[in-house]
Amino acid sequence: MGQRVAVLLLPVKKQFPSQRKKSKGLIPLSASPEAQDPPACLFCDQAQETAPHLLLSCVFTRQIWTLVFSHLNLVVDVPVNSSSFSAWWGKVIRAAPNQWRKGLNSLIILVAWEIWKHRNSCVFEGVLPNSQVLLQAITNESTLWCLAGASKLKELLARSLVAPS
Ligand SMILES: [Zn+2]
């Protein structure tokens, strides 16, 4: 699992479709001499597949974040254009009440991880992007994390049972 996380954190740069096949979807550590612009996003085909786009700004991904946050009665801005996923993440955590920060950290890690896994299913298994499948995977994984002891995540997820005020 550690290796997979390391791949997630690498910048998606200097990769194009033929290279994506050669590298089996992995993101190269350095730009090759023949590298050109990144390939198109697998989710929307409307922008280059950069890490901030894939994890945050893609129309497909933004829909996922918006549904997750609204389900938890959380008001979180999901930017259309962002140059840094980590900067957005930090901003969201700083803006959250102290009591929700640990749970929100876990949630953001979990959702980003599932987005990455869904992207990899599209690359390696030919799966079509599907928001319902991804949301179900997020639900299943969050249940497992709570069972494994993610108590602050569990408290945050309980917000879905509370009517918005
Ligand atoms: Zn996209």
Helix count, per DSSP? 8
| End-to-end Cα distance | 39 Å
Biggest sheet statistics: none
Q: Outline, from the CA principal axes?
A: globular
Count of strand segments: 0
Q: Overview of this structure, please?
A:
The protein has 165 residues and is mostly helical. The chain has a domain at 50-161. Helix content is 59%, strand content 0%. It is built from 8 helices and no strands. Helix 6 (98-125) crosses helix 7 and helix 6 crosses helix 8 (151-157). The longest helix is centred in the C-terminal third of the chain and has 28 residues, at 98-125. The protein is globular. The protein starts with a helix and ends in an 8-residue tail after the last helix. Zinc ion binds at residues 41, 43-44, 46-47, 53, 58, 60.
